[in-house]
Amino acid sequence: xxxxxxxxxxxxxxxxxxxxxxxxxxxxxxxxxxxxxxxxxxxxxxxxxxxxxxxxxxxxxxxxxxxxxxxxxxxxxxxxxxxxxxxxxxxxxxxxxxxxxxxxxxxxxxxxxxxxxxxxxxxxxxxxxxxxxxxxxxxxxxxxxxxxxxxxxxxxxxxxxxxxxxxxxxxxxxxxxxxxxxxxxxxxxxxxxxxxxxxxxxxxxxxxxxxxxxxxxxxxxxxxxxxxxxxxxxxxxxxxxxxxxxxxxxxxxxxxxxxxxxxxxxxxxxxxxxxxxxxxxxxxxxxxxxxxxxxxxxxxxxxxxxxxxxxxxxxxxxxxxxxxxxxxxxxxxxxxxxxxxxxxxxxxxxxxxxxxxxxxxxxxx
Length: 365
What we know:
Blueprint: H1 11-16, E1 22-25, H2 29-40, E2 47-50, E3 59-60, E4 63-67, H3 68-74, E5 79-82, H4 89-101, E6 104-105, H5 119-124, H6 126-135, H7 139-154, H8 158-161, H9 167-175, E7 182-186, H10 192-201, E8 207-211, H11 215-225, E9 231-234, E10 237-238, E11 243-248, E12 256-257, E13 262-267, H12 269-273, E14 280-283, H13 289-295, H14 297-303, E15 306-310, H15 317-328, E16 333-338, E17 347-352
Parallel strand pairs: 1-2, 1-5, 2-4, 5-6, 7-8, 7-14, 8-9, 10-13, 14-15
Antiparallel strand pairs: 3-4, 11-12, 11-13, 15-17, 16-17
Helix pairs in contact: 6-15
């Protein structure tokens, strides 16, 4: 059923069977999660290093942080486990050059939630994964989907480098925005997606609703929007119903619903819209995409908005979210695209409906 999954061994099993020293490259939340998984698999870590310019004689997770140059001076043959996200072209090139000198593994750990994405995990969810693969609308999406899954199993970043689309590719050939979009932006951050929309429509739109729960991000968003007519900002979380939720403010893209956060308002898209139409709906809500989709289900079923939904926060997102969207509105054609990012972040679902006149929005301007 999953013939497109060529990887049989997980990154964790590969690391457990490794006889060479294993060094972790990077610090932060990703490194903490990876170290926890390595302890579960009883994988020994020889040490932690950072780029030479970031080493200040400090410790992390009980390890003295070393310079890469010092490790290379001491050891010829070792394995590197990348523990931070890379998206800038110069840094990606640096990782590619590093991989030519040492084996480089990028284990997949979920941004939100628990569990690890292994071959066994895929087998447990084989029917759902196969269903998504078969319902994707183009061969490019199926290739991306297969590569993302093989990367998540193996930790081999080559799978990601082979499927990169640019923002121009996505906006011009998948989203194809018009000059009269009613845009709902969930996880609006500092207004970056609004900027992108305005760039591709030459500043023209009908209406924008922007939702951002993080205090500092919201201030940046409000400053960017200013008093622009037909733009309304909400400082709240996106959810399936109107309620209150605990939320951890981290002043960045990792702010998220958290059991130990401060209580904030949460709203559903359907209630925010109050019956008004939406033509373009984006969701990047740090693991709450499933709930946000349910909260927009009436609007999705009624108005057929173009959807842009993050697929990389939880392990199950890669198959649960496409299936959920299709169940709410079977008319959607589903596409998957991946922008330059290691690990497999910026992997997004794009759902496009045929418009009421009977022609597809895909490729129309």
